[in-house]
Design a protein that fits this description.
This protein is α/β, with parallel strands linked by helices. The protein has eleven helices and 13 strands. The protein has a six-stranded mixed β-sheet with strand order 4-1-2-5-3-8, with no helix packed on it. The chain has a three-stranded parallel β-sheet with strand order 9-10-13, covered by helices on one side. Strand 11 (301-302) and strand 12 form a beta hairpin. The longest helix has 17 residues, at 249-265. It is found in: Secreted, Cell wall. It is an enzyme of class 3 (hydrolase).
């Protein structure tokens, strides 16, 4: 199925958002909920039905960050910073699918994909007038939740919101968008703001039950964090980053150390009975969005269960889910990403 982009009703609809925030021109955008370039944010919605009519699932679109004025200016010329460039119709697959055979537990819920256009993971509340950049991620989040409540989410009986080169990147995001004031004081009272943008320093203070899904060898992190060009000037990792089958023993050991560090980081999180996790030993990324990795005949499994089954078992309290895969190369069910 496909879903249309909505950006012209209350939260995202042009006329009503202008009246809602008393915003009629770019000079008023300081008060408004907007993307990096000042355009209105948007979302895709497919209504639930039957026993799922009062249940809601929100997928927050991913897409990295901008960590400098220059990178944010570039970003506002893409769908990651402007609704002008967003696809008007997108397929709903994986956890957003409306087919029971593809999405057994959530197929008939109200399913929303909230588009990402602020460059800082829905945080930030400032602007750069000189560069005409609007860092309004926090306002997008708040306005979106208020809008979805008005659409019926306030009556929901089920509700799911639903991923040292990185330090330099995150530091740029925090400073560019002035996120210091928006990060939780429970973290910033003992760590610097950049450290508090890292998820492992935030999850311990989250009270809402959470399900953590991640690939132990996340393909994006392999590319951007573990062996970026700045750390590999001679390109010794180029073949390995594109295809894990080309990695030598030393590189594989490096990945295993990365996996062990991640497992240590989530130890406290995993001890909570309310939390769940699914960590498979795959070179993958965004596994809930792709139908082949979410729920299909050959989807990745841990403990003989797919990601969709594991999320459903945890959410509906059918059983505790603490699925941690054995190290690479033991898992033959992975859909590993290979880049050309």
């Amino acid at each position: 199925m496909t879903c249309n982009l909505t950006y012209s009703q209350t939260f995202p609809i042009v006329g009503e958002i202008n009246s809602l925030f008393n915003c009629e021109c770019l000079l008023c955008l300081f008060f408004c909920t907007v993307c990096l370039d000042g355009t209105l944010p948007g979302y895709h919605l497919h209504r639930g039905y039957g026993f799922g009519a009062n249940s809601w699932l929100i997928q927050l679109e991913g897409g990295g960050w901008c960590n400098s004025v220059r990178s944010c200016i570039y970003r506002k010329t893409t769908r990651r910073g402007s609704s002008k460039y967003m696809e008007k119709v997108i397929p709903f697959t994986g956890i957003l699918s409306n087919k029971a055979e593809e999405n057994p537990d959530f197929f008939n819920w109200n399913r929303i994909k909230l588009r990402y256009c602020d460059g800082a993971s829905f945080t930030g509340d400032s602007q750069d007038e000189a560069s005409k950049l609007y860092y309004r991620g926090q306002r997008i989040w708040s306005a979106a939740m208020e809008h979805f409540m008005s659409l019926g989410m306030k009556s929901a009986n089920q509700d799911v919101s639903g991923g040292r080169t990185l330090r330099s990147l995150y530091g740029g995001v925090v400073s560019t968008q002035q996120l210091q004031k928006d990060l939780p004081s429970s973290c910033t009272n003992h760590l610097d703001p950049t450290s508090c943008f890292f998820p492992q320093n935030l999850i311990a203070n989250i009270q809402t039950p959470m399900f953590l899904l991640n690939a132990a060898y996340d393909a994006w992190q392999v590319q951007a964090s573990l062996a970026p060009p700045t750390a590999d000037p001679h390109g010794d990792w180029d073949d390995c980053k594109k295809n894990h089958a080309e990695c030598n023993a030393t590189q594989i050991n490096f990945f295993q150390d990365f996996r062990n560090q991640m497992l240590n980081a989530v130890k406290g999180f995993s001890t909570s009975k309310r939390n769940g996790l699914f960590l498979n030993s795959c070179f993958a990324h965004c596994q809930t969005e792709r139908q082949d990795t979410w729920f299909a005949d050959d989807s990745p499994v841990v403990d003989q269960k797919t990601i969709a089954q594991s999320v459903g078992d945890w959410y509906f309290d059918r059983m505790s889910v603490k699925a941690i895969d054995c190290p690479y190369p033991c898992d033959s069910s992975c859909h590993n990403l290979v880049f050309k």
